[in-house]
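Q: Here's a chain of 461 amino acids. Please give me its 3D structure as tokens.
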Amino acid sequence: MSKRIIVDYTNCMDTTLKLNGISKKKLSDLGSALQQAQKEVNHKKQAGQLGFMELPYKTSEAKDIMKLATRLKGKYDNFVVLGIGGSALGNICLQNSINHLYYNLLPKNKRRGFPRIFVLDNVDADMVKGLMDVIDVKKTLFNVITKSGTTSETMSQYFIFRKELEKRLGQKYRRNIIATTDIDKGYLRELADKERYTTLVVPKNVGGRFSVLSPVGLLSAAFGGIDIEQLLAGARYMDSLCQTNNMSKNPAMIYAALQYLMYKQGKTISVMMPYAQHLKEFADWYAQLWAESLGKAVNNKGKRVNVGPTPVKTLGATDQHSQVQLYMEGPFDKVVTILSVEKLAATLTIPSYNTHFLGGQTMNKLLLTEEKATTMALAQNNRPNLTITLPEINEFNLGQMIYLFELATAYMGELLEINTFDQPGVELGKILTYALMGRPGFEKKRKEIEKQLRKKGKFIV
């Protein structure tokens, strides 16, 4: 077991920042509200409403997934995820965090016999056709993921690739599809049962953006050679750290507390900036988790509040040359979370040329130095920032990180007094799409939209 990750929030406190810092008293005063938030979260867990908190303990399910991946290893050259949002971002995050950054370009022996992994997370025709150009569908296993079984983007992908498979394989095409969906309802479930696909289940009490440690994320991870049992072990370890109601010893609690207090002080933008290329897609995953969970129009009492911090994903040191100027001298509306890694997998020494000062030093030291310089510069400009440090990037530590942010999101929702686990804004977009695309049962809505479009004035240049 690797040692735990560390949350350093020194640069958020008024002992460091002359302006915009949080006092120990403010943190202390929030203690009772945080403890109540923890009680509410635990109560919902006990009531079976928060399935994401159960996932780290589903070890037998992880073993079954590993067995499936082992049994099918070597039979396919490619593994393609068909999904969007929570059915895709977690998969991308796991692959990019753990596997070689150019994994799909490695020869098969250097992938230890595992297939190339692709996640098709959009319905852009160029993207879909482009994937067709680089894979042989006969040698590809497709994992179609939608809990509802009706997600337009995912089902359109499924129909396109099913047709291609039927052309190439006839009725044997079924061997090339695994469906991950609800256990007993939805269009995809009906199809899967009718066509006798291999299926995995999305738990009823787990929402898409909280599903990365369920079969939604674990299957592609296993097919990419990732140790999913260690992922769950890391999440369990973080859960054990977060059992205490002492804010100063509970990583998820302190993160939620800092974000909440900063939000109340007008820091409505939450920037995540990993200083590791491997964690770039973790910031993408975080952005959905934070935005979809916390951006809400009404609170739990039905009062219109229109709350929610805006997540921004960046990358160090890349975005020091694009966004940090704004963070340093722009509006005082941001809190920056730095993701730091003590030990990267590779070490590269910079050659010495003409006695240049960089010669003989490592790129690792340069990246870490730029990270430290950025946090110091932000603090000197009274810009709040905190650093979350991983000893190294591996499955165990990634499991810790995932669970920390999921639980912190749940706490944050309680502090904001909103429903963290719905997404009515997303649902409205789905309904309008169904109507405009001619889904049966949405004829009335389509007429309303068309009437609205006819009346609406247009301003076009």
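Q: Can you summarize the key feature?
A: The first strand starts at residue 6 and ends at 8.
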